[in-house]
Amino acid sequence: MFIILLVQCINAQVNPMLYKWGTYKPQLIHAITERNMQTFNPLTITFYYFMNNNIRWEKSIKYKINERSNDEPTYYQYLYHDGERYAIHETIDGEYKVRFTNEFYKVNPEKIEDWVTTVVNNDALVGDEEYISLVYSIAIEKLNQEKTDLRKLQVEEEGDSLKITITTAQQVNYIYVALESNGKQVNLNQNDNFGYSLQFQNPTLNYNLRTLLYSELRKTKEDIPFKFNKTIDQEQGNIVFVQYVAKRNELFKFQLRYMQREISVSSDYFFDARILKKLDNMNFFSQFNRTFNKIPLKNPFYLSCSISSFANLIGGFATSFGNIECEEANPICSQQKMMFTPTPSRFGFPRPFLWDDGFHNMIVCRWKSQLCIQSLLDWFDTMSSNGWIPREQARSPEQKTAVPQAFLAQKQSETNPPTFIFNFLYLDSLKNGEIQQQVRKLYTKAIDWYHFWIKSQGVNEGDNFLLFKWWGMNDNINFGSGMDDWPRSHNGLKSKFNIDASMWGWFFADSMQKLAAIYDPQKSNQFHQTAEMIKKSINKYHLDPDDKIFKDVLIDGSFSPHLGYPNLFPIAFGFIDPTKSDILDAYVNMIKKELWTNHGLRSLSINDNHFGKGDNYWTGPVWIPINYLVLRGIQKYYSTHKGLMDLYKELRENLMNTVCINWRDRGQHYSTYTRYFFEHYNQRQDGLGRGYHPFNGWTSTITLIIHEIYD
């Protein structure tokens, strides 16, 4: 059953209760965790499953999405997620031949802590194994080593349910465990297929409980292998496992409800139709259509694609707490900070990336300004005193274990493009007093960020001159630019100025001037003068007079022959004067000749010697966010230029087809299409998705493309 919820109106005052609980461990199949702003040590509920007769090793117990089998693919996707109170997640496991959904509902998130998570199977399970085990762990984690968490867990049977009591010196909360089988409520305490275990271990290890779960299950002596009994050996602990062993032909709902009060489970039960009716009165889809412009589409599956893209972006929000690692000494690196942000990929990158998040928030800001503002505030809380914001922030031990050591340490020289400026400008455009108060705070913080960015990336060779360059690992591997392996050197000559870096510098200064005109008028002229200086420098040094294309400049002053995404930023940012038809015509011709495919604009010219070489990451594949910026630039600034508008119409349709057909058609299981979005797309004839998947970070800008949203 899908329960449809109403999304509330925009309100910029960030209510901490709204985002205290959520699906904030995107790397796991299903987990509900707490943004604990007092001790920063969360209570986390994690879901696991395994086949009782087929546990060959520890990883036979599944709970992470990046451990799927290559031989028998397993698919994970959010069907719906509103970011505040409601989520439905589907798992289709090709190896175990099972399919189920995990549901999460908050009953009244603004006022009380009252939520429910349920694993549901509405289809008879298929396959050869007789039993499948469903396990929840309830665990107190310790992320903050400086504060002691005094919470303890106790377990007792009560009526038809199991009650888990969470006790602190200040309050007592409860989790009730309940089961419905084949449409009827089950007395768990009289059911031989239900078991539980109370455990204690060092809470710093409690983010990964599979090893403990596996070792404890191996000790069991039940008739069903690998099943807990109903006895406990200690009065209290910091971990509880609850387990239900389902039969193959069983339709079940296995549920946990978290509450601040004790209840009589038989009389105040969440399966009760009264509560479901309250939720049924709300409407998710009407709010989605209002937010993202309901427009005529040639095929209704584009709308389904858009909703799925959106839901899986929201399902990628992560919360973490801890410090980061840095190559250079900086006090900000050792400080423990809370982060709450979207992430690029549940599979490959379940941690925050700076320039990615600017694209993510183009969507999030429209949907929930509170959610967007909270993410931005957390990012700026990690800014150092000199204005540096680390571009990649794996903070918790759990996040760090998923990052290769070579990528953990952050460098001040590698600063990302300032994409958060898109979010500032959009939030300000809402002209909502409460929102503008938050934008004012963010603008004040952004001043230091701006000065650091301009200084660290700038190349100043005299008065009235300012251009920019990316300072990366080397001239052809540059993580700061965001386009890691896009070629910058040529025939041994390094780059002197990078056109995309210079364009970001101009866009940053020009946008800060617009914000200062509202929030800090005395500084507006200063930003304006800097923007004009950069603009003159770009026109003088980056524009190749022979073919009218803005290009990288090499160390000897010659123009780089490489053509690709960096050359498109003058169009994306509306930098080119709309009356300069010769330059705009040249861009149309260059795009058609060098970058055009039937699946979107490729990242590097097909005629380039570096095309498709090395990792083939940004040297050919189609990336959706840069294509989005090009569409945005054409629609906002060049709608009167026929050549660009013709290109716009065809490019938009190509992108929609590429992303949404891949989402619809890539693989099938149980006669149901699998639904994945990809990191990037093959620029060749097939247009197949490539790289990490699911990838619902900036690929989710397809939602904005479908609905033609470019503000």
TrEMBL record:
<keyword id="KW-0325">Glycoprotein</keyword>
<dbReference type="GO" id="GO:0006487">
    <property type="term" value="P:protein N-linked glycosylation"/>
</dbReference>
<dbReference type="InterPro" id="IPR004888">
    <property type="entry name" value="Glycoside_hydrolase_63"/>
</dbReference>
<dbReference type="InterPro" id="IPR038518">
    <property type="entry name" value="Glyco_hydro_63N_sf"/>
</dbReference>
<dbReference type="Pfam" id="PF16923">
    <property type="entry name" value="Glyco_hydro_63N"/>
</dbReference>
<dbReference type="Pfam" id="PF03200">
    <property type="entry name" value="Glyco_hydro_63"/>
</dbReference>
<keyword id="KW-0812">Transmembrane</keyword>
<feature type="domain" description="Glycosyl hydrolase family 63 C-terminal">
    <location>
        <begin position="561"/>
        <end position="707"/>
    </location>
</feature>
<dbReference type="GO" id="GO:0004573">
    <property type="term" value="F:Glc3Man9GlcNAc2 oligosaccharide glucosidase activity"/>
</dbReference>
<comment type="similarity">
    <text>Belongs to the glycosyl hydrolase 63 family.</text>
</comment>
<dbReference type="InterPro" id="IPR031631">
    <property type="entry name" value="Glyco_hydro_63N"/>
</dbReference>
<keyword id="KW-0378">Hydrolase</keyword>
<dbReference type="InterPro" id="IPR012341">
    <property type="entry name" value="6hp_glycosidase-like_sf"/>
</dbReference>
<keyword id="KW-0256">Endoplasmic reticulum</keyword>
<keyword id="KW-0472">Membrane</keyword>
<keyword id="KW-0326">Glycosidase</keyword>
<dbReference type="InterPro" id="IPR031335">
    <property type="entry name" value="Glyco_hydro_63_C"/>
</dbReference>
<dbReference type="InterPro" id="IPR008928">
    <property type="entry name" value="6-hairpin_glycosidase_sf"/>
</dbReference>
<keyword id="KW-1133">Transmembrane helix</keyword>
<protein>
    <recommendedName>
        <fullName>Mannosyl-oligosaccharide glucosidase</fullName>
        <ecNumber>3.2.1.106</ecNumber>
    </recommendedName>
</protein>
<keyword id="KW-0735">Signal-anchor</keyword>
<dbReference type="GO" id="GO:0005789">
    <property type="term" value="C:endoplasmic reticulum membrane"/>
</dbReference>
<feature type="domain" description="Glycosyl hydrolase family 63 N-terminal">
    <location>
        <begin position="21"/>
        <end position="159"/>
    </location>
</feature>
<feature type="domain" description="Glycosyl hydrolase family 63 C-terminal">
    <location>
        <begin position="281"/>
        <end position="556"/>
    </location>
</feature>
<dbReference type="GO" id="GO:0009311">
    <property type="term" value="P:oligosaccharide metabolic process"/>
</dbReference>
<comment type="function">
    <text>Cleaves the distal alpha 1,2-linked glucose residue from the Glc(3)Man(9)GlcNAc(2) oligosaccharide precursor.</text>
</comment>
